[in-house]
Amino acid sequence: MTFGQTEAILLVAYLVLWWLFYFGVKMRADQKYLQSDLAEDMRPCQGCIITQSAMMAAATLAIIYGAILMDWIGIKQ
């Protein structure tokens, strides 16, 4: 099994999506925490934020990849 160009592109796309979702979710959680007068039970869980971002990135990539395979989105080289 070799690691080809397609896998490398998908890995980079996943990492970029994860990073974008992570910052979006983190900023939203921090904003909710600051608006709650710093209530300790509203403090964002770091592991939850990381997991939520990873799941959102994976779901987005799966939807895009499925749309490409079903020829709803065309990519020309």
UniProtKB/TrEMBL annotation:
Q: Which UniProt keywords apply?
A: Membrane, Transmembrane, Transmembrane helix
Origin superkingdom: Bacteria
Determine if Transmembrane is one of this entry's keywords.
yes
Transmembrane segments annotated in the record for this chain: 6-25, 46-68
UniProt KW Transmembrane keyword = yes
- How is this protein named in the record? Uncharacterized protein
Native source organism of the sequence: Terasakiella brassicae
